[in-house]
């Protein structure tokens, strides 16, 4: 079985072999730009690339036990948790960042803060919908037994920078000294920078880790996968955002 596992990366790489053959042919015909583009695409689609890039972003803020988070005045759960609004009576349409919601509730139930804050994210295509994502999450949390008076929803926000700004305003108005910020682990470096620049004293509570930093590389990590290409794109987008805010001083 071990012998077969070692052979799998060699014999089950049709996409990788095809791309390598195309690159070789293009190089011989002096098609360097296309060959380089294909080589970059191939490298970006490897789990070894996507996992390591995501893991690098996640390494800045390691997982924190609930008992060690806080105490604080409020728990701020960043948006991007729900998918398209479902039809009335249908189940909630969660997206891949639903752990942000779970993390917020876990912290509140553990008594790490008295208030839970959801942000009022609203996608442009959903302008006809009167409620924001934060309103919907508040309703779900109430259904799950969280007292309504312990849940706040910010005004409308469009991105993480807006979230940091409105939370800073709420902290000043409400007299909050410190908050816990809950977001996806790979997103935390950019979020932390924005909240810090907005003047918010916070405790980072990353959730939804995507990379296993302990596991060693294996043969399957060099098999091209569309999921890995998406992870690479996600990590690079975060890096672009961090670089943009660093250059603009935001």
Unreliable stretches, pLDDT < 50, 5 or more residues? Answer: 1-15
Largest sheet: 5 strands, parallel
Structural class by secondary-structure content:
alpha/beta
CATH class of the largest domain equals Alpha Beta
Share in helix: 40-55%
Distance between the termini: 54 Å
Reported by name, the CATH topology of the largest domain is: Rossmann fold
Query: Which strand-content bin applies to the residues?
Result: 5-15%
Number of domains: 2
Count of β-strands: 5
Name of the CATH architecture of the largest domain: 3-Layer(aba) Sandwich
Shape from CA axes? elongated
Mean pLDDT: 84
Fourth CATH level, the homologous superfamily of the largest domain? HUPs
Order of strands across the main sheet = 3-2-1-4-5
CA gyration radius, whole angstroms: 22 Å
Number of helices: 9
Features:
alpha/beta, 5 strands, single chain, disordered N terminus, 48% helix, elongated, 250 residues, Rossmann fold
Notes on the structure:
It is a single chain. The protein has two domains: 2-59 and 219-248, no CATH class; 66-207, 3-Layer(aba) Sandwich (Rossmann fold), CATH 3.40.50. The protein has nine helices and five strands. By secondary structure, the protein is of the alpha/beta class. A five-stranded parallel β-sheet has the order 3-2-1-4-5, sandwiched between helices.
Sum this structure up briefly:
By secondary structure, this protein is an alpha/beta fold. The protein has helices at residues 2-11, 14-28, 32-44, 47-58, 99-109, 133-143, 160-174, 188-197, 226-248; strands spanning 74-77, 115-121, 151-157, 179-184, 202-207.
């Amino acid at each position: 079985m071990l012998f077969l596992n070692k052979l799998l990366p060699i014999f089950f790489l049709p996409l990788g072999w095809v791309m390598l053959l195309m690159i070789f042919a293009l190089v011989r015909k002096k098609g360097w730009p296309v060959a380089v583009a294909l080589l970059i695409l191939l490298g970006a689609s490897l789990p070894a690339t996507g996992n390591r890039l995501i893991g690098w972003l996640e390494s800045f803020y390691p997982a924190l036990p609930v008992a060690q988070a806080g105490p604080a005045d409020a728990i701020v759960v960043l948006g991007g948790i729900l998918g398209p609004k479902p039809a009335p009576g249908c189940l909630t349409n969660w997206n891949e960042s639903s752990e942000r919601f779970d993390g917020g509730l876990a912290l509140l139930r553990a008594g790490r803060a008295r208030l839970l804050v959801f942000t009022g994210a609203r996608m442009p295509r959903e302008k006809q919908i009167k409620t924001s994502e934060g309103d919907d999450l508040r309703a779900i949390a109430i259904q799950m037994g969280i007292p309504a008076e312990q849940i706040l929803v910010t005004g409308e926000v469009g991105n993480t920078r807006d979230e940091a700004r409105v939370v800073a305003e709420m902290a000043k108005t409400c007299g909050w000294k410190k908050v816990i910020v809950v977001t996806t682990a790979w997103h935390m470096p950019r979020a932390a920078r924005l909240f810090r620049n907005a003047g918010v004293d916070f405790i980072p509570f990353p959730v939804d880790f995507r990379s296993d930093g302990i596991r060693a590389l294996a043969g399957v990590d060099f098999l091209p996968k569309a999921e890995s290409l998406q992870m690479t794109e996600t990590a690079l987008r975060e890096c672009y955002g961090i670089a943009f805010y660093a250059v603009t001083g935001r």
